[in-house]
Structure formats: structure tokens, C-alpha cells
User: Which sequence fits this backbone?
């Protein structure tokens, strides 16, 4: 059984329910990056400015607010954090940086595979544990997840409706598959949370299963809804012609 002091997560020690909302992360580097993004946003056109502000707010929520520390206690919170990187922060960065207007080398199918690979790799228990015991590994995790998701969203916006729909459905399937794997697991995989979930009323296995349900249900549903939206718009465009 690991000791409670073995893991040193970037977001701080696992909080108790009574005080987690006061556990903010005032990392000067993160605050400086967010502030720089806000300053740059003021120099842009209104649409890009709004995307910059929204991306900065998402970064504050994910890395500065007490939600960051909550991920040290609950794998469920960490899973939501990872989903937020891909479904909230990454698309906002695409809009703010106009990544969809740039020439991208990899095809959408290649990026779909790469994004899925990165997401699954960081949920391998040994690598996940490494990220929660080293700031450097933690930021490699965050950067790789966010970057691959952002480039994927950018390429998605350049693709045909058929290709975009297929990529969204493929991403939905892989997200749901990982979620199902966690839901039906017969043991808890993530050692950093072995001693941190009980204060929240969950066993480590229950925490893992709830995280899996979120991946399998709401997160997968977002990709399905996006695919249906793309398909609906493409059919509408055909009717107009």
C-alpha cells in the first residue's frame, strides 16, 4: 500500500471535502501565461478576443481554481479535467490562434489516431502515476493532450462533412471504450488515488467507475452531437443547392 506522501501532484496535496474550495494554485508561471494571453487578446479582433478570454478562463478553471486540487483527490475530477482539455480548452485555442487557417501536415485520420493514442497512453496506470508525482511529467501530459486535441479540432474544421463526421464518431467510440474499460474493471488501477477517495465517500474502484461513466456517457455524447450537427448542416447545404 502506498504512503500518502508518496505522490506529489502538481495541483497540491489531495484536499478534504471541508476545505478543498480554498485550495487555489497560484503558480506564478501559469498566472503569467494566462495574463499574457489576456493582454494579447486585447490586440485582436473581437471574435478572436472573446476566444482568448474564454481560453484564459478555461485555463484558470483547470489549473488555478480549487478544481485543480480536487483532481489530486479524485480520479473522477482528473478525468473531467482531461475531458475539459480536449472539449473546451483545445477548441478555444483553435479559434483564438486561428489554427484552422494554417496548413497542417497530418491528415484528419492520422490526427484522430494520434489524439486517441495520446489520451489512452496517459491513462496507462504507470504513466498516470508518473504525472501525479512529477511536475515535468504532469506538464508533458497536459501539453500533449491539449496540443493534439487542438490540432485535431483545427484539421476537423478543414475537412469535408463526411470526413469530419467519421472522425467525430471514431473519437466518440474510443472515448466510450476507455470509459467502459474503467466502468467494468474489477479493481482500481490508479494508485495515487488509493488513499484519497475515502474522505469523499467513495472507494477507489467507485471513483474510477464514476470517471468511466463520465467518459462513456457525457463526453462521448458531445462528440456524437457534434457529428450529428456536421451531418445535419451538410444535408441542409445539399438541399439548398
Assistant:
Amino acid at each position: 500500500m502506498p504512503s500518502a506522501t508518496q505522490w506529489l501532484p502538481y495541483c497540491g496535496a489531495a484536499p478534504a471535502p471541508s476545505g478543498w474550495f480554498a485550495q487555489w494554485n497560484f503558480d506564478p508561471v501559469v498566472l503569467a501565461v494566462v495574463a499574457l494571453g489576456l493582454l494579447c487578446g486585447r490586440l485582436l479582433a473581437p471574435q478572436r478576443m472573446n476566444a482568448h478570454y474564454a481560453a484564459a478562463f478555461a485555463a484558470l478553471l483547470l489549473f488555478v481554481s480549487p478544481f485543480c486540487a480536487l483532481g489530486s483527490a479524485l480520479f473522477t475530477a482528473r478525468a473531467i479535467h482531461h475531458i475539459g482539455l480536449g472539449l473546451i480548452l483545445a477548441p478555444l485555442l483553435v479559434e483564438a490562434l486561428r489554427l484552422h487557417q494554417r496548413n497542417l501536415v497530418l491528415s484528419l485520420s492520422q490526427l484522430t489516431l494520434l489524439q486517441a493514442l495520446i489520451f489512452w497512453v496517459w491513462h496507462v496506470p504507470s504513466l498516470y502515476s508518473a504525472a501525479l508525482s512529477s511536475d515535468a511529467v504532469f506538464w508533458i501530459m497536459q501539453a500533449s493532450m491539449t496540443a493534439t486535441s487542438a490540432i485535431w479540432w483545427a484539421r476537423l474544421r478543414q475537412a469535408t462533412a463526411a470526413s469530419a463526421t467519421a472522425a467525430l464518431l471514431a473519437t466518440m467510440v474510443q472515448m466510450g471504450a476507455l470509459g467502459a474499460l474503467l466502468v467494468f474493471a474489477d479493481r482500481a488501477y490508479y494508485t495515487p488515488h488509493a488513499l484519497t477517495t475515502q474522505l469523499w465517500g467513495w472507494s477507489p474502484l467507485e471513483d474510477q467507475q464514476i470517471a468511466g461513466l463520465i467518459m462513456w456517457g457525457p463526453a462521448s455524447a458531445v462528440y456524437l452531437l457534434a457529428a450529428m450537427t456536421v451531418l445535419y448542416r451538410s444535408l441542409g447545404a445539399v438541399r439548398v443547392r
About this structure: DSSP finds nine helices and no strands in the chain.
